[in-house]
Amino acid sequence: MKQQINPRSWVLAAMILAAGIFRLFTASGTLTPLSNFTPLGAMALFGGCYYADRWKAYLMPLLTLWLTDVILNRYLFFHQWVFFYDGFVWVYASFALMVLIGHYIKQVSIKSVVLSAVAAALVHWLVSDVGVWLAGGIDITTGLPYTRDWHGVYMCYFLALPFLKNLLIGNLVFGAVFFGAFELLQRQFPVLQAKAV
Questions:
Q1: Rounded (to 5) percent helix, strand, coil in the chain
Q2: Which of 2, 49, 118, 166 qualifies as a cystine partner to 102, CB 3.0-4.6 A?
Q3: Which range of residues forms the domain containing residue 68?
Q4: pLDDT digit string, tens, across residues 161-197
């Protein structure tokens, strides 16, 4: 029996890939006031919320993150093919947790999207920055690696607050775009609605 094309899966994948393309065209090789203002957190929440197949919910956002990382590492950051950078495990773990948060959005509403956007930003901040500290990241106030004590952990998290703020704003802005657009598309085109199981 020939398997039918599922338009819902294709539209979800296209929206997730659009987030990756947006990242590629807006990435900068330097720190700016907009560093970490990205659609990637919203992309992870979106995939977790709308994909019925859990493996697709994780695969599509994490694969998009990885592919854009590889391209940016080659052409912007390292100028060579770097498939996995130091500390990538912590970053990807935080994005996997964001997908999980998206999975718990049972009813898409302004409240549920805002709460998940906040939770996703906090999870990313907590998980990825402990990875920065453990990997011996550099304290920009001293130019030395973070100290191996509670003060070093505190400084690592404190200095990451602007990135947390930008990711949160990105989650809220792009979350409104992704969730709002897909909800409207589902109303306009019933074929995009999830099939009752």
A1: 70, 0, 30
A2: 49
A3: 7-191
A4: 999 999 999 999 999 999 999 999 999 999 998 874 4
